[in-house]
Amino acid sequence: MPYFSIVIPVYNKERFVTDTLKSVLRQSFADFEIILINDGSTDQSEAKIMAFDDDRIRYFSKGNEGVAATRNFGIEKATSDFICFLDSDDYWYPDFLETMHSFTSEFPDQKVFACAIEIGTKNNYIKAHYSIPEKSDFEIVNFFESSQKECVLWTSSVCIHKSVFGKAGIFDTKIKHGEDTELWIRIGLQFSIVFIQKVLARYVYDEKSVSRNLGYFFEPYTFDKYATQEKENPALKKYMDLNRFSAVIKSNINGDWKTAMEIYAEIDLKNLSLKKRILLQLPPILLKPLIGFQRLLGNSVFR
């Protein structure tokens, strides 16, 4: 049995999947299997994948079901105790798995591990900004308190013991936007996170990527799932309000005033900084260029 199972969902990523796979096969720690699932791609992704000849790659092809169902398929097929996810347009540094192996061995009682990421813009790479003091090379953190800026868990930066999915569940296929973050919430309610300060993964900017789309934000269904729990959990409430802030801004830009007003009504403004409270009052004509400038810098106006 390999030490790691690496789940890679692929949907129309012919421009990126070769580099993503190379970044895995170049890992200094080699005891792994790759669960590579083609989720009904209509481009040349499959041809790019088939160019690789490595016994550690287990290739599956199925009809398009979306990324949540595809990752769940990968979890089911995984044979290792530790599962890592890697999006097919992202990249790992060669010591990603070696570092995860070191920390999972050092902290056998911990079940969830993550590293810092860098964000690739058109011009350079910028380390994501976290609300975690850099006191040492790692910290054991609470998900909600450590995700006030960049989310401490990100799909291509995590290493999770398979037993976690038995307790917290898997990706919710009812959710079309933010299904990964919603799972992190469930995990964060039950598990602490070993956060490694070193940058070991890279988010590769793809203008077509759903996570950069202005339609990508928590749906009302997601907020409703935690409506009761957040009343008793201030850290969860603040985290959800930060996501409500993001949803309101994006809804305003998209002209969806009804959704914006409904979500805004649920925000406790004390959970937002003065800057965010001001942004909520700005008209879309001012928000759009501001967001474009923030993206150019590799930052997010939503955090």
Structure description:
There is one protein chain. This protein has 303 residues and is α/β, with parallel strands linked by helices. It is built from twelve helices and ten strands. Strands 1, 2, 3, 4, 5, 6, 7, 8, 9 and 10 form a ten-stranded mixed beta sheet that branches. It starts with a strand and ends in a 7-residue tail after the last helix.
Topology:
Blueprint: E1 4-10, H1 17-25, E2 32-39, H2 45-50, E3 57-62, H3 67-77, E4 82-85, E5 91-92, H4 96-106, E6 112-120, E7 125-127, E8 138-141, E9 158-161, H5 162-168, H6 179-188, E10 193-204, H7 220-225, H8 229-232, H9 234-253, H10 257-264, H11 274-279, H12 284-296
Parallel strand pairs: 1-2, 1-4, 2-3, 6-10
Antiparallel strand pairs: 4-9, 5-10, 6-7, 6-9, 8-10
Helix pairs in contact: 9-10
Looking at this protein, list some descriptive labels.
single chain, 303 residues, alpha/beta, 10-stranded mixed beta sheet, 12 helices, 10 strands, globular, disordered C terminus
N to C succession of SSEs: EHEHEHEEHEEEEHHEHHHHHH
The structure class reads: alpha/beta
Low-confidence stretches: 296-303
Question: Averaging pLDDT over every residue, what do you get?
Answer: 90
Largest sheet features: 10 strands, mixed
Q: Mind telling me the C-alpha Rg?
A: 19 Å
N-to-C terminal Cα separation, in Å? 40 Å
| β-strand amount | 15-25%
Discrete helix count? 12
How much helix is in the residues? 25-40%
**Shape estimate:** globular
- How many beta strands in the DSSP annotation? 10
